[in-house]
Amino acid sequence: MAGRSLRRVVTNALAVRAQLLLGREATPLEYAEDWVASGRSIADLARAVSADLGRPVSRGFVSFVCQRLQPDARTRIANARAARRRSPLTEPLIRGERREASVDG
Question: Residue 27 domain-assigned?
Fold first, then answer.
């Protein structure tokens, strides 16, 4: 499959996932943003798209496609990833704090 054809196929697979999971008007970029904001990696997305297509698609290629969905796609995906890192659950880890586990009993 030629590069442009594969790019179209991956974009369409992301569009289908977006519409099924986020609603009829959702875009592939919104899906990619939601994916990384939820803590999952582009490598995980590549595995999911590969399963949908029934053929392997590399993490690098899925990243390439996602970053070119719109002119600001790279920034939007980076912002979604950064927002995940700054969530209340992960903020102490970013600052290097360790929470001690306590067992009440």
Answer: yes
- Of the CA atoms within 13 Å of residue 70, those in its CB half-sphere come to 12
Domain tally, the chain: 1
Q: Are 57 and 65 in contact (CB under 8 A)?
A: no
d(CA 68, CA 38): 21
Range of the domain at 48: 3-91
The pLDDT profile of the chain, 105 residues, written as one tens digit per residue, is 466 899 999 999 999 999 999 999 999 999 999 999 999 999 999 999 999 999 999 999 999 999 999 999 999 999 999 987 665 544 444 455 544 444 444
- Distances in whole angstroms, Cα of residue 14 to Cα of each of 35, 52, 58: 11, 10, 14
